[in-house]
Amino acid sequence: MIDFKIYSSVAELPKSWDPLVGHDIFLQQGYLKALEKASPSNITWYYIGFFENEMLVGVGIFQRVQLYLEDIFRNPDDHCLEQRFKNLVSKILKGNVLVVGNLMHTGQHGLYFKQEIPGRNKVEIILKALSSLEKIIKKESGKMIRLLLFKDYFEDDGIHSQSEIFEQHSIYKVTAQPNMIMSVQSNWHSMEDYVGSLNKKYRRRYKTSIKKSQGIVRRELTLEEIELHCKELYQLYKNVCDNAKINTFILPEGHLYHLKLQLGERFKVMGYFLDETLIGFYTLILNGDILETYFLGYDSAHQYENQLYLNMLYDMAKFGIEHSFSSIVYARTAMEIKSSVGAKAIPMSMYMKHTNGFLNALLNQIFKLMNPSTEWEERHPFQQ
After folding, report:
1. I need a labelling partner for 329 at 20 to 30 A (CA). Which of 139, 181, 209, 296 fits?
2. What is the pTM of this model?
3. Measuring CA to CA, how many Å separate 20 from each of 56, 86, 113?
4. The pairing of beta strand 55-67 with beta strand 43-52
């Protein structure tokens, strides 16, 4: 029989936690410690250990997310009927959301069990743990959970085999935006190999972007430099964040510093300098043989002239190739430009439940509305 224990601090986690999740940095205590120090103000973290005969056999990362109207939709247009309807929907959905997983990063980085644990047992004990956690949150905050979200599962994830249990609890599967992932080809040993595999159109595009960024100095920032440029990095991040169609959280100013402090060489902050002024940055998390792209920022005044964003995507690919990663996770959003550098859209799904029965029945349609438009043209940059 599987039992569980709920923790509210990384310091409380059992010693067997990290050895169990060595394959995924997003489940490990270093990453979680950093987020405890510098997490968005509307996110509260909980950790659940699943035990069989007092042995840790599974872990879960859960987030209570407090959503408000200004957090959900950005850049409202009061003259747009669609925007007004979106605002109405966000008013209905605002409140406490309980997330199974990590809202701050694309992908399934919220649950892990030993393979020998049957799928049905996993889902049933997770649902029991969620019920207990909801009661704890109600006692702590006086607030009810309005929406339950299991986030980001690839179509081959074993959780889908337990769809019958989800349906019994009125938890419905909804389509999420895809994860953009580029597989590093076995014959790519340098950026020259990558460029050589591009067709003529995209080889020209690559050369043009590099030419436009010739005046920019790229360098990795040390922990001390991240602290020194903390306010600049935050403003560059906010430049991008504030222009997003949807945001469910805002990073605090010290987020990058605390990640570097905890993760060391497994976390990279790459700065772009023009005339010794920081005009952009991107971040990487080294997750085993998978390179995970993280948050970025740039000065909009230099974005078009220097093709900052496109150059960042190429530089991420370069790092992944030269350091022998198997794949590069570009995450969701900006799917067309990411496909132009070679990333493929990998479908993902979520499971959701609203406490309002009527809204729960309409959840799939509401979620589609809340997502940015996914109409985009896939690019094919490589030679056939």
Report:
1. 209
2. 0.92
3. 8, 42, 9
4. antiparallel
Which pLDDT score is estimated for 86?
60
* Cα–Cα distance for residue pair 163/351, rounded to 1 Å: 9
Nearest-angstrom CA–CA distance, 238 and 160: 36
At residue 56, φ and ψ (nearest 5 deg) are -70, 120
Report the range out of 72-76, 97-101, 366-370 with the highest average pLDDT. 97-101
Structure tokens at 31: 């990453």
Query: What letter represents residue 130's amino acid?
Result: L
**DSSP H helical ranges for 64-199:** 69-72, 81-93, 119-141, 163-168, 191-197
* Interval 259-267 mean pLDDT: 98
Angle, helices 81-93/363-370, rounded to nearest 10 degrees = 120
Mean residue pLDDT of the chain comes to: 91
Q: Give the separation between CA 216 and CA 308, rounded to whole angstroms.
A: 10
Could you give phi then psi for residue 221, rounded to 5 degrees?
-90, 135
Residue 85, pLDDT > 80, answer no
Q: Are strands 290-298 and 327-331 parallel, antiparallel or unpaired?
A: parallel
- How far apart CA 330 and CA 309 sit, in angstroms, is 12
